[in-house]
Each structure stands twice: as C-alpha cells, then as structure tokens.
Amino acid sequence: MSIVFFILAALTITGTAAAMALRNAVHCILALTLGFVGLAALYLQLGAQFVGFTQIMVYIGAVAILAVFAIMMTRSAGPHPQPAFSRTWRTGTLIAVIVFAVLAYAISHTTLAPATLPQPEVTVNQIGDTLMHQYALPLEILGLLLTAALIGAVIVAMPAKQEAPQ
Amino acid sequence: MTTPDTIDQIFVITKHWLLGYVPAPLQPIASAILSVLPVMGVFPLLFAITTVLERKGLGRIQNRYGPNRVGPAGFWQPAADGIKSLTKEDVVPRNADQIVHFLAPIVLVIASFIVYAVLPIGRNMVITDLNSGLLYFFAVGSMVELSVFMAGWSSHSKYSLLGAMRATAQMISYEIPLVLAAVVVIMATGSLSTVTIVNAQTGYTMGFPHWFVFTPWGFAGFILFMIAATAESNRSPFDLPEGESEIIAGYYIEYSGFKFALFFLGEYLGMFATSGLAITLFLGGWAAPFSFLTWIPSYFWFFAKLLVIIGVFIWVRGTLPRLRQDQLMGFAWKFMLPMTLLNVFVAAAWHFLPTGIIRWAVCTALLVIPFIVFSMGLKQNKKLQVRTYRFAE
Known about the structure:
The structure holds 2 protein chains of 2 kinds. Chain A has helices spanning about 5-20, 25-45, 50-75, 90-110, 125-130, 135-155. Chain A contains 6 helices and no strands. Among the domains of chain A are: about 1-80, Up-down Bundle (Four Helix Bundle (Hemerythrin (Met), subunit A)); about 120-155. Chain A is an all-alpha fold. In chain B, strands 1-2 form a two-stranded antiparallel sheet. Chain B has helices spanning about 5-10, 10-20, 25-60, 75-85, 100-115, 135-155, 160-190, 195-200, 215-230, 245, 255-280, 300-320, 325-350, 355-380, and strands at about 205, 210. In chain B, helix 6 packs antiparallel against helix 7, helix 11 (about 255-280) packs across helix 12 and helix 13 packs antiparallel against helix 14. The N and C termini of chain B lie far apart (about 60 Å). At the A-B interface, helix 2 and helix 3 of A face helix 6 and helix 7 of B.
C-alpha cells in the first residue's frame, strides 16, 4: 500500500461521492469523470495498461460524452427541486452497512489461501492474440450484437414516414 | 562516438550528464523533469512561431500583409499578444458556472500537453516508451472533448452551447476515422508502441526510405488521418464549432484574456500532437527522407516534417471554404468511415499477397475504385461547376 494508492483512492472516492451528492446534473457527470480517472490511474498503477487506457477511452471518451450530450439535447441541467437525500436514506444506509459487514466478514474469515502467483506481465499484444485466436468467436458474437444495437438505434432515430395526404 | 552521432544524441547526453549531479534517490524524478521541461518549452515556442507564420501566410493568400510591425518582419507579434492577453481583464459572465468555467481551459491545456509523452521527437528522444502508446494517445485525446463541453456549457450562453455541441459531435464523428486510419499501421508493425513503429520505418532501399506513406494503404491512411486530424483540431475547413459568422467564436466565446490564450494554445498543441502522430505513423518519425541525409540530426527531421505539415494546414485554411453541418456529418459517415474500413482490409490484403507488382495493382485498385464510387455518391444531386473568380485590379 503505497502513498500513491491512497491518493488515487481518495480521488476516486471523492469523485464518486461528489457525483452522488451534487445537485447539478453536469457537476455530477464531471465529478463522476474524476472518479473514472482515479480508477483508471489505479489500474495503471497495478500495471494493467490496456485496462487503464480502455477505462479512460470508454468511460470518459464515450460514456461521459454520451451523458453530456443527453444534457445538451434536453437542457435539463438546472438544479432539481427535490432534496439530495431521499426519504428512505436511513434504510438504504442500513442495508449498505449490512451488506458490507457480511462481505467483510466473509473475506476476513475465508479459508482460501491468498494467491501467491507472481504478478503476470500482460501486454496489449497478448490480449490481442488471445482475443483474435482463443476468443475469436465470442468477439464476433459481441460485434454482431453491437451492430444489431446500432441498426436498432438508427431505425428508432429514423423519421417516421409521413402519411400520404387524403 | 562519431561527431554526427554526438550531435544527434546531444540532448540525451546532456540529460545524462545533468543527471550525474543529482543524488541517486532523486534521479527518477529528476529524469522525468528533465524530459518534460524541453517539451513544455519547445512546443509553446513553436505555437508562438506558428501564429505569426499562419497570420502572414493567410495574409499572403488573401492579398494583404499580415502582422509586420512588431520586431523584425513582425516576428515579435506573439510576445506582444502574450503581454496583451496577460494584462487584459479576465471577464467571467455573472451567470456562468464559476468553477467549471475556470477549469475548462486548464483541462484542455493539460490534456493537450500530456499526449506528448509518447511522441518520439528524435532517436532515443521520447519521454516514455509505453507498450500501448497509441492507446494512451487516443485515450487522452478523448479528454479534450470533455473540456470543450465544460467551456461551452459553463458559459451559459446559447452560442457557446451551440458551439460546444457542434464541436463534440464533430470530434466524436471524426475520432472513429482517425483511429481506424491509424489501425493499419498497428497491423503492419504489430505494435502499439510509437518507438517500435518509427523503428519499423528506418530502413532504406536504394536510398529511399521504408515509410508507410509509400504503400497504397499507407498513402490512403495518411490522407484520411490528416483529414480526420484537421477535423479533430477544429481547423478550417472543419471550423464550424467556432464559425464566427454564425456563432461568433463557439465554445470559448465567453473567455477573455489569458484563458482565451490558453484555449488558443491548447488547440494548436493538439494540432501539433496529431501532426506529430501522423509523422510517427506514416512519415517515418525522425528518420531522414534519403539514406545520404542520415548525418543530419534526427530531431531536425521531426521538426522539419512538422513544419511542412503546419504549412499545409495554413495553406488549406486559406484555400477551402467552411463546410456546412450536414456536409460535415455526411462526409464523416458516408466517405471517411467506409474508406478507413476499406483501408483496413487493403492493409490485410497487402500483408498476405506475395511481394511484387500484383500486390501494388490489387491494393491500389481496391482503394481507387471505391474512392471514385464514394465521391460520385457524395456528388449526387449537386450542381457543381467551376467557380469564376474576379480579382481587384
């Protein structure tokens, strides 16, 4: 546990917490982006370059941009009248604490030996090789699924044919 | 070491010499600082020179002088502009979102600077040789879009919001062809590391270099990459996000003084970085164009190529009119995307066909015929004719 880890963890937690607490939708997205950056930096610190950069590319380059686009299109960026905490926040907190306690208890009392494997050197080349050889079929199926989703989106967005005037 | 080698490696040698004076525990940090500082000095300087060159070049194209008052031939103009923007009042609109408004130019400049970490400027002159350098470059590049949105949205002005919308839509649309155009080089070298990509292009056959631009897929890839790079850096003819006749200055309309200068800087740094990447991918990076010119230092060649590309950017800006929004999107999705996808197939065909004239013929035909077809498709239902110009006597 180095000092870098604590800085990055603080960054991630601050960002995601602010994303939940802030009142303005755009501020929430920007705070969430900060959380994504922290998470990506954590991946990079663990030596997972591919995952780290993909995290930035997908979550900041695509997800956050999609969210801001939705806001720009709908102009619903103003503060919302409801309070930040819903009325049932006590129940929610209680459930969260119980789940955390159960998980923490289970992990601390596990009989499984901690993994002693050496840290694997996973390069982008290896990931590419595995995707193209061993997992070529799942990759193709995923591609097909995404293409279907894309075509569906285009059909939804296409202007409906005008009824011929009577 | 021979003299040309020493001159070629002078900066690397100097860095190691300076590092010798730093105590051992501080050496990693000192090494990083010594690598970063020159980049942070040289590229803003290049930005200053480019603004003068651009204004003078555009002036020449448009039959006027351009800046010629400050210093010899107007070359101190950027210093005057810098002092002006530093002393100007920093106006922030009352309704603006203060924090986001303040952060937007900073995020833009940081994102524009950190992409230089993987650009090889010369032999052994790269800040960090990442195993996945290209991935890093494109990942960081996607942060620019966010800063543009931050600027446009936080200003609370309809013009800046429109500009931000246009800019983000344009950047998303052209990011796909940009990455796909770069993919062919990754296919050819089998590596995402910028240093490996440059090393793959350093050989010579009969005095001519092995640059990827001298293959059918490399040539098409280079042209497509440069078009997408122009659109990514919001330069003319893709400068709709800041179209001054419609939305005044787009997303940075509400910025004044030094923050405006920061936007300007970020935009040019982004342009240099994508041009530098184009040089790395297709034009052999720091490699000399002929084998008998290899005695000239490698960093000279990198910056010479960069200046040539900047010159072309200025030329294009002074020549082409701005596209309309529907033309912009049509061009991205009906021409750039199919062409880049096709180029990926051509690169694969090039890899598997036997070396020789057949490979050239097949790959060129595979690119030229669809190019003509797509161009015809874009030209449909448009009455194009030669424009008649009238000049003032």
